[in-house]
Design goal:
mainly alpha
Length: 138
Amino acid sequence: MKTNYGQAALRHWIASGVLEEENLLQDAAYLAGYVGECGLKAAIIALGGIGNPKSYVHDLEALSGDVLASAALFSRGYGRYAAIAKPLGSVQWSPEDRYDNDRTDMETMKSNCDRFREAGSSLIFALLLDGLLEDVLC
C-alpha cells in the first residue's frame, strides 16, 4: 500500500472538523494534529526534501524544521511553505491530553485544533495549487 500523506491530511481535516462541531475538542485536536503532521510530510516529499518523513513519527518540531529547510534548499520560490509550516513546531500538545479531562484546558484544545487544521490544510492546498500534489483528490 502506497502512503499518501496528502489524502490522509484531507481525510483527517474533514473528520476533525466534524468532531469539533460536536464539541469533542480533545478528539478533534488529536486528529487535527495528524492534519499538520501529514501536511508537513506531504510537503517534504513534494518539495524533494530531506530524509524519510516516516522516520519523524509525530515530531512536528522536526518536521516543520525540515519543511523550512526543504523549501529553502530545494524549492526556490516556494518560501510560503516555510511560513505555513513554522507555527506547527511551537504548538503545545501532548497525546496524554486526550485522556486526562482534569488537566486538559479546552480553550487550548480548541486553539491547537484550529492551528493544526489551518496550517495542515494550507500546506496541502498550496501543494495542490502549485501542481506538486496531484493525487490527493483521487
